[in-house]
Amino acid sequence: MRTFRRRAVLGAALGLAACQRPAQGQPLPAGALAPLKSLAPFPVGTSVMSGYLDDPVHADFIAAQASQITAEWEMKMEYIVRPDGGFRFDAPDRLAAFARARGLGLFGHTLIWYAQVPPAFERLDEDRIGFGEAFDNYITAVVGRYRGQAVGWDVVNEAVAEDGDGLRDSLWSRKLGDVGYMARAFKTARAADPDVPLFLNDYNLEQIPAKLDAFMRLVDRLLEAGAPLSGIGSQTHVAADLPPGALSRTLTRLAGFGLPIHVSEIDVSLERGKGLFGSRAELEAKQARIYGEAAQAFMALPAAQRFAFTFWGLRDKDSWLVRENAADAPAPFDDAGRPKRGAYAFASGIRG
Ligand code: XIL
């Protein structure tokens, strides 16, 4: 009975990919699924660390599957701002060079994040103008450096409070005002690159209705404040127990602004979604269903609003969640780069 039900779930999730699906219980043959970027009528992204590029097989895999890359860590303040306040661009430049060499887009992540406040900024005196100048100077330097190459920037990351009750408090908000620091960051980024799409990015929008509401209000406030916001990023770090429909409803609502949408950091945790019961196989089926729903929901957006769909790690072994908990397996490909059910479900979700 259990086997039968599992088949039914899988069958529905995999749909048209059935012809490519290996027999149950068999290892997935490498290459049985065409590269994701060749299947999708929208850019497919992945997070990358510069160290990945030391492994030519991994570098080729990334370039084969993805049409754009997001720096997982090395374009954040924590990396770029040195303890003495100077900037370092070695790793980000390496990612940018890789993207150029392979014809991939480079997505900038992230300029202003409450979670990263370098000591050099904390040490600035209380002079509001001095702080604002340093803030602008950072954004101008980073955005300006990749001007003409970056396909987009996450300008402000995770600005909404965890429970959706207002906005997060941070050094940025305390010095420059709660919506003020954000509007300023967008305007400064726009001045540094007149053409690059600028994003507000956040997470848990599928799980916490109050947070989605607060995020929507924030978008309104930023637009009213004249912030040159060009797109919306929904990180989509979700767990396998996310109820069906939650992801689609969220994307549909976010798309109501008419702005491009970036599914900017998707992964589907097994460990965070396992609850008390549920076999590994059931969790994997749920994970695949979610990747399928995400692709379907993204395809349901008007083509002009499908900015990109970015995986936060293509292979399990590259995932931050696996670094946190080795039992997790949240990515669409396994450690060896073989497509998992999630990758097949993503492919069939695209086909509808
Ligand atoms: C995470 C990276 O994956 C880790 O390697 C890093 O140490 C911390 O940040 N939301 C974001 C990402 O916007 O930048 C985070 O990435 C994951 C959550």
Question: Any overview of this molecule?
Answer:
This protein has 352 residues and is an alpha/beta fold. It is built from 14 helices and nine strands. The protein has helices at 2-14, 36-39, 56-65, 77-80, 90-102, 119-122, 128-145, 171-176, 180-192, 209-224, 246-254, 280-299, 320-324, 341-351, and strands at 44-48, 68-71, 105-113, 150-157, 198-202, 231-234, 237-239, 261-269, 306-311. The protein has an eight-stranded parallel β-barrel, surrounded by five helices. The protein starts with a helix and ends with a helix. (3S,4R)-3-hydroxy-2-oxopiperidin-4-yl beta-D-xylopyranoside (XIL) binds next to loops.
Kindly state the number of beta strands.
Answer: 9
Mean pLDDT: 91
Bound molecules: (3S,4R)-3-hydroxy-2-oxopiperidin-4-yl beta-D-xylopyranoside
Order of strands, widest sheet: 1-2-3-4-5-6-8-9
How is the main sheet built? 8 strands, parallel, barrel
Strand percentage lies at 15-25%
Helix/strand structural class: alpha/beta
Count of discrete alpha- or pi-helical segments spanning 4 or more residues: 14
What integer value in Å does the Rg equal? 20 Å
Distance between the termini: 28 Å
**Envelope shape:** globular
- The helix/strand series, from N terminus to C terminus, equals HHEHEHHEHHEHHEHEEHEHEHH
- Uncertain spans: 1-30
In which range does the helix fraction lie?
40-55%
